Amino acid sequence: MKERYDVLIIGGGMVGSAVARELSRYDLRIGVLEKNLDVCYETSGRNSAVVHGGFAYDPGTLKAKLCVEGNQMMGQLAEELDFPFLRCGKVLVGNTDEDMETLKRTLKQGETNGSVGLEIIDEDRLHELVPAVVGKFAMFSPNSGILDPFQYTIALAENAHENGADYFFDHEATGISREQDGYVISTVQGDYHTRWVVNAAGLGCGKISDMLGIKGYKIIGSKGDYIILDKRTGPLLPMPVYPVPSNTYMGIHVTNTIDGNVTIGPNADMVTDFDYYGVPQKNMDYLAKSASDLWPHIHKADYIRNYSGILPKWVDDNGVIQDFKIEIRDELAPQAVNLVGIESPGLTAAVPIARYAINLMKQREELKEKADFNPRRKGIVRFESLSTEEKARMIKENPDYGEVICRCEKVTRAEILAAIHNPLGVSTMVGIKYRTRSMMGRCQGGYCQMRVEQMIEEELGRKETEVLYARQNSQVLFGKVREED
Amino acid sequence: MEKKAVIIVGGGPAGLAAAVELYNKGIRDILILEREKHLGGILRQCIHDGFGLTRFKTTLSGPEYAQRFIDEVLEKGIPFLTDTTVLDVSEDKVVTAASRKGLIRFQAQSVILTMGCRERTRGALGIPGERPAGVFTAGVAQAYMNLYNRMPAKEVVILGSGDIGMIMARRLTLEGAHVQAVFEIQPIPSGLPRNIEQCLNDYHIPLYLSHTITEIHGGSRLTGVTVAQVDEHFQPIPGTEKDYTCDTLILSVGLLPENELSIDAGVQLDNRTRGAVVDEHFQTNVEGIFAAGNVLHVHDLVDFVSMEAEALADSAAAYVTNGPLPECPVQVIADGNIGHTIPQKISGQKDVRLSMRVKRLIKDCRVVVRQNGEEIAAKRMKKALPAEMIQILVKADKMTSTGDLEVSIEC
What ipTM does the predicted assembly reach? Predict the structure, then answer.
């Protein structure tokens, strides 16, 4: 029989990995069961990457409380875990009297929630903050920000792993049964035993909740599509620009990314297929048109890619979207932490969500802090971000920094080697892309993907037919053209 | 900081031809910076033949064509650095590059931009659908096969009738893949007629014009594509959709000059070519920075790339020897039938060869160049194709240095 865990977390996204990281402060055997081949293939890696201020949620909800907490701690977290984060602020832009009323209401709600620094600004100030934005006035949230959602999730996971948490990829949970003082979790790779279970399955939260015996949560998917624009556009947009929100939907916005691109999106299509990430033509057309109403720099010549993501929303019988649910139902599933409907602002709130969940555990069991917990994690040093002098020094110390593999994002061999030998053991092409930004630039891997593929083969001793793009069965190559001697 | 008379950014066909010609004009203080392991640029992966017919009057493979120039570079001892990626070119011509040996910086008297072009991608086109493995640009598939000995495809659909796409249709077929069809959104092919014959017709690969891909299927590896006919506005016609089962989609949908370094150097680009605005010396708006080859405008044949780079080198040699080149106050303006002309500015005092492409197929026409209302050059064309570059020589004795040149197509 395999080793028994104290806690098994189902789902290695930013919430699952935040739970793993926060739990790894304690003297516990922790494992993470992830159905994909990396930690951010679903909602965690497919979103707007905006750190929210906390004004968009009804007062008293967990969404409001944990978002504000998450926003406040993001600077320290980014420093500890070495992921890119920028508190650039954001504006919600309006034109009509009705918009003004909504913004005032939003500002008041934000203040009640504890979001600080919010102000209504006039057109002049708006244009000082964001030249070329289209709008008469705005609400400005100085504490909103942007981060790299891949690095963020990977950083949480790597820090958890460094503090002892085991990560199991390609481990979809297929069933959960009770045993003495705990659970058996069946996965596609066999059974795992644990005292505690945490359901951090994101889009799969309803399914896992059912497996735990906590039935009846209705989860719908809100699928949003995005278009990514060339880095040429980044300098034109210093902060995200949103329209005036409704209660349930933030609207199509233009967002600067931490790497200097711009994204436009998302629409919100209600879906039941949580596995389909196609972007339809009509949605791309709609995004471009809607976003152009806010910001005039959207041209098809700057498109470099599109993507979509799905938010798991817990709804009641009338279809009304509910708050986050973070619970332990002792009567139905003792020693099981159930996280349901963790959608936006889950990115901002991931660590507070984790701490809230762990507090529920602490109310039932004493957790002993580890003396050797290390809150710090070091990421891969990005050559492109360095000054000329630092670049020269890095190459001198390690010549692999002098070999540029990805021309668009100027990613060097040293960075790709570090990514291939990542602590979590991820070996897909997209895994390397998320960790380095190779293949993420304007040529989309036209120059570097063959080099990255070859390095994966060489460094990990893989055959060319074993190199995967992203998901299971996503072979990049079918073999050799000619057998080598 | 080390000084150089001329730094050439990119050791592909344009850079090599410029280097050799500069040497022939007596310039010795040259350095070619090439990011790959070997000189030759994209020609290294173009193992098919058909190169050199214009220039060498014989048909060569890409590597053979490149080798003719590489041999000259080696014989003449022209300095070059491979595995060296230029990170930045500044407006005052400081060139910064990285290699395993370190970060190097040069103060150049003149910089020659010959970075070539890149392929337009699926994301740039905004093709709808999922994002599985198995969607490659033609050049990526070509590199996998010809440089890395890796087979990227079995059941193939090709979008776009660009030359590399058609060449890859043949190459994939010869290596055992099955190419089902080539789809082209335009009503005419975008590649050369000879490639349609030799790469598609000879292998019974159908080419469907006025068709595009409306959806990509597959969550892991590609499982298929949906294809539809398009109307005259390139919009899919409802009811014409057809599904193709395939594991690979090859895109040959256009090339884009690669000008990120140029932009940082303050070089002004032409929206139509996406390359630099140049004068008859192939000099950009930044004095001493020159551009030629596919970084300037996408060529149909490498022979013309070499010839353009040689013309550039003559000017660059004059610049480093004698200082600033004659002013070029005369604008070259093209009518709506012509996508672009190179150069965009001339002196009006020197013979000049104008390069251009038509935007659509035009039969039985004349390319006419006028200045101040006078016809000063013309070329009769039985068939003008967008796939083929047109060149027309305008003689100095016909021109003056005042009054724009107007280039038009007349039927």
Answer: 0.96
